[in-house]
Specification:
Blueprint: H1 2-22, E1 33-38, H2 43-52, H3 56-64, E2 66-71, H4 78-87, H5 91-94, E3 100-102, E4 109-111, E5 131-134, E6 147-150, E7 163-164, H6 169-173, H7 180-189, H8 201-221, E8 228-233, H9 235-243, H10 263-282, E9 287-291, E10 297-298, H11 311-317, E11 333-334, E12 346-351, H12 365-373, E13 377-378, E14 381-382, E15 384-390, E16 396-401, E17 410-413, E18 416-419, E19 433-434, E20 441-446, E21 457-460, H13 464-471, E22 476-477, H14 491-496, E23 501-502, H15 518-530
Parallel strand pairs: 1-8, 1-9, 2-21, 5-6, 5-8, 22-23
Antiparallel strand pairs: 2-20, 3-4, 6-7, 9-20, 10-19, 11-12, 12-16, 13-14, 13-17, 15-16, 17-18
Helix pairs in contact: 7-10, 8-10, 9-10
């Protein structure tokens, strides 16, 4: 009861502060803002495009604003990363850490949805802004917001709750879908190789999906009532996994098919054109933020097989954790908070709930848990090369696993054995580009209130949301993990728009974990398999 009253009080305070904050006297309204998310865009590729003159809109933004290298999190699971970016929180607080989650009845796995997020995202914040967000990761079911939310399942025909408000459904159902020949023609016109680009069915399907949401964004922005628009595209990630050598040459790269020469460079130029189109829809004073979740690196060596271990499943097999009635592990594995990279093995964090450990020990349950971790063997040798207990800021155990594991390795504990490949779901096997070692992404901001800084800065992925919140003149929650990049803003902006903080954005509670048609879950899992993200 006390907790409920506290949450209600925080919500009332935030609402009151927001009302007073945005109804204060202001000389002018905030200019509109376009947030353009590009999955896997990295500076190695973007700098080459800027040097070639093929991205004039991005070039202007870099020249007139600030740009930064974005430090991401590991593992580079996009749905986890973009949710951290949207909320300003680390995964253990925003609630999403993997592509899939166990079904509530314990049968099968579901693609992550917005119902798994346990924190407010940027578009949930009450404000004087009218939002439009399209295709953002884990945005289905579409949430009611002050504006329009087009979920990342809206491109599937006939999906319920694909858009909010539901009154916009007719527009969604009538949205155009570009044909393969037309898309190939548009990309070929931008090809620096001056040759015809041909798309495989798989690549076309993904680029057509990008175009579907870009066309929707264009149509909605043409109405003229949006002040903050967020548009997300995945095509660069898809293309660079297969054709990174088209834009970032590297030794012993696989041969590029003749019909794919220039394809990645053409698509970067294509997206730059769309950025210009959407900025024009928002008006001449529109502000721009372009951001990615991580970069891409050449596939010179394969990632360690152990990268894809489902640590929860390993602990459950070992009898070290129990399972709830819904079939979900009681103990949640979480990415390493400080994002250190280790030269040997892979370090992961285990978030500890001592009262949920499956056994009742007389000694300290966590010390006993650590002792049992040390008994887990890989091919007869200790599986965890290091086990470290951390008590601040949260109770957590860091374990480093040997990277020499093979698919046919055996894990043994308490005399029971299981093949490692039964516990591994992420096996990255792209042709050219990979991001398992968390290469840095990009961040670019330009427009009213942003300094002109020629030197490239450093920013963390979790700093994006609080920095945008400050730029949007929204009250900032003190309990975010990310921090505002104050150096990005002009002295005039800071003087004219004093910062204001609130203790928290309050508790975020989805309606409940809803499921869509099974065929869509199957389609999403098939796509993740085709990209090598799951087995």
């Amino acid at each position: 009861m006390k907790k409920g009253i506290g949450v209600l009080a925080v919500g009332c305070i935030l609402t009151a502060v927001t009302f007073l904050w945005f109804n204060r006297d202001r000389n002018q309204q905030d200019p509109p803002l376009l947030i353009f998310g590009i999955d896997a865009a990295g500076w190695d590729a973007v700098d080459r495009m800027l040097a070639s003159g093929s991205m004039p809109n991005l070039s202007t933004a870099v020249r007139q604003g600030v740009s930064a290298r974005l430090e991401t999190l590991k593992p580079t699971v996009s749905v986890m990363l973009w949710t951290a970016m949207d909320t300003g929180l680390l995964p253990e607080r925003h609630g999403i850490s993997n592509w899939l989650a166990a079904n509530e009845d314990g049968a099968g796995q579901l693609a992550i949805t917005s119902d798994f997020r346990s924190a407010h995202a940027l578009w949930n914040l009450n404000s004087h802004h009218r939002y439009l967000f399209l295709n953002w990761w884990a945005s289905w079911p579409a949430e009611p917001i002050n504006g329009i939310m087009v979920s990342n399942r809206a491109h599937f025909n006939g999906v319920n709750q694909a858009i909010s408000p539901e009154t916009e459904r007719p527009m969604l159902d009538s949205a155009r879908r570009i044909g393969k020949l037309d898309l190939e023609t548009e990309l070929s016109a931008l090809n620096p190789e001056k040759t015809r680009i041909a798309l495989s069915d798989f690549v076309f399907n993904k680029l057509q999906t990008d175009r579907f949401y870009l066309d929707l964004a264009d149509a909605i922005l043409a109405r003229g009532d949006t002040t903050v628009a967020g548009v997300f595209v995945r095509g660069i990630d898809i293309l660079e996994h297969e054709f990174l050598q088209d834009i970032v040459p590297f030794p012993n790269a696989p041969d590029l098919p003749q019909e794919s020469h220039g394809i990645v460079r053409a698509y970067y130029a294509y997206l730059d054109g769309w950025i210009g189109t959407l900025l024009n829809r928002l008006g001449p004073d529109a502000r721009l933020c372009v951001v990615s979740d991580h970069g891409m690196e050449p596939m010179i060596e394969r990632p360690p097989y152990i990268e894809g271990l489902r640590l929860d499943d390993l602990l459950a097999f070992a009898g070290l954790i129990g399972r709830t009635s819904e079939g979900l592990p009681d103990l949640r594995s979480a990415p390493l908070q400080d994002n250190k990279k280790h030269s040997v093995g892979l370090t992961r964090g285990i978030q500890i709930h001592p009262d949920r450990l499956s056994r009742n020990q007389n000694s300290d349950p966590i010390d006993a848990f650590i002792a049992e971790l040390a008994d887990v063997k890989l091919d007869g040798k200790p599986f965890f090369s290091t086990i470290e207990r951390r008590q601040s800021p949260d109770e957590q155990i860091l374990v480093t696993m040997e990277s020499v594991a093979r698919p046919d390795s055996d894990i043994t504990v308490h005399g029971r054995s299981i093949a490692l490949n039964k516990l591994v779901s992420m096996i990255i096997h792209p042709s050219a580009g990979q991001h398992w070692n968390a290469p840095k992404g990009i961040f670019i901001a330009s427009g009213q209130g942003i300094r002109n800084q020629t030197e490239r800065q450093e920013i963390r992925l979790i700093d994006v949301m609080p920095t945008i919140v400050r730029w949007m003149n929204l009250p900032l929650a003190k309990d975010l993990d990310g921090t505002v990049q104050h150096s990005f803003f002009t002295e005039e902006f800071v003087r004219m728009n004093p910062a204001h903080e609130v203790p928290s954005y309050g508790e975020y509670r989805p309606e409940g974990r809803r499921t869509g048609p099974q065929e869509i879950d199957h389609a999403i899992r098939d796509e993740l398999k085709s990209l090598g993200y799951i087995q």
